[in-house]
């Protein structure tokens, strides 16, 4: 399986933390932020990336605990001009608002309380 096939497999088998974070990243379009999920970048596949902001967000499980591989990967991604935020899965699940606030701060945007109406979220508040 090539990188694109593996990325597709990862998109179809996201962890609970990745699914929750994806719901929020896709619902909030702040300052033009547009995240993509499970994207190949060079030899790696990142969990979430906003190419415009050059920001990568990683949702990590226990397999990443002090991983030398992650240090090498992050160093390479930084040479490509990316900033990387890493969050533990349990942090995403238990402290979602704090995780989102950190992401939006890194993007230079305040956290929006309103979901994006372009995807249908929050439509009950719009007048027809």
Automatic annotation (TrEMBL):
InterPro entries: DUF559, Endonuclease_DUF559_bact, Restrct_endonuc-II-like
Start and end residues of each DUF559 domain: 6-107
Gene3D superfamilies the UniProt entry points to: VSR Endonuclease
Record key words, sorted: Endonuclease, Hydrolase, Nuclease
MF GO annotations: endonuclease activity
Database matches in PANTHER family: BLL0828 PROTEIN
Protein name as catalogued: Very-short-patch-repair endonuclease
